[in-house]
Please model this.
Amino acid sequence: MSLSDLSGVLQPIERARGLPNEHYTSDAVFDAERGPLWFSTWAGICVAADVPEPGDARPVDFLGVPLFVMRGRDGVVRVFQNICRHRGMILVTEPRKIEGAIRCPYHSWCYSHEGRLVATPHVGGPGRNTHPDIKPAELGLIEVRSHIWLDVVYVNLSGDAPRFEDLHAELIARWAEFDVPLHHGGEDSRFQLECRTNWKLAVENYCESYHLPWVHPGLNSYSRLEDHYHIELPGKFGGQGTEVYRQLRGDDGEVFPDFPGLSEKWDTAGEYLTVTPNVMLGVQRDHLFVILLEPKGPRSTLEHVHIYYAVPETPDRLRARNTEQWRGVFVEDIDVVEGMQAARGAPGFDGGRFSPAMDGPTLLFHQWVAARLQAMETAAE
Amino acid sequence: MKGAPGLQSRLLTAHEVGDSVTLSRLYTEAADLAEAEGDRDRAAFFLTHAWVFALDAGSGTADVLQNRLRSWGRC
Model:
């Protein structure tokens, strides 16, 4: 399909316009985005904490592509296309522990945890388990290129994106101090939020601190707009930080332990960035959170939230308070992102404008989207 | 199955509950009975099932069963 003219997006911020309405409402654009924005780069599909033990497997619907994530007997997390190489049966339909082989429920072809085809029962006739034309070495599971960073499992479906460590070298370096053992807080530290909004609006909202005084008034007493700063690396990442992060304190004054070895900056800083396309991260001295966006369609997104700590055991009540605090903040954002979505049917809207002082990171995201879509169209011509 | 009182019903019960360990053992029993009756083809059919369910369960007997099938030229 031919996309609308995106040249307005790729202007300097003083003149730039945002992505046209159809980029938030159109099924065709949503489909067109799959290649350039998702499959050709590294997208987050789950967290490694979703498969904590060897043998744990979980299906993932990655924009209509059936995958499954598995922690093998060797402890390694792998991602496979969720399909048997025989007749194409789906292999993993619900989260479960696979103690032995991955057995197809249709004709019982069996695969090892590393994806090797290890059994083809009756393939040569009843009781005959080999056939010269069925070569197991050629019929292993289709593994999907994956990478884990800060416990998020990223995949590159196209197989040809730059290495994750190279593509995101600057961000990895910026947050190197958080690349330490992360401990998921457990069941009370994960939740989902359904949003009637296009996934990009959730990212755009996360980019900026401009909305904080109005949408999150609870922050005004200790984290004012002027305490926030932009983080901008064109073509790479954008977001914002605060210079006045304040630790949550329990009734007895207890706090969560800090991640080990942090520099002084993190005594009072918190940073909030998106690994494009869909992984929104927040780091503070004593906990880290992941918001993984799962688009359900052009107008619907499921947010998967996970909170991590520096140690395996943290005070239950404090942890629960922290979860509720963040849930409250993220729920406050839902109203505005759903409102942004609801207005996208207005035919006179030209994509809007960006405050040169306040909307820099947001425009960077629009330009990331526009540039990749334009490159796709150019390649197709 | 001839000479196997209750084996069929035990197999069906194990299938109903998805007990791969028991299924492997029972299909091995069925294979042994078939081999004793001189029916190698039926024995290989049942032993194949025993092997697959041993793989499914992650049982250490999977290799033994596969080797037995190999010795019959069935794997």
Summary: DSSP finds eight helices and 18 strands in chain A.
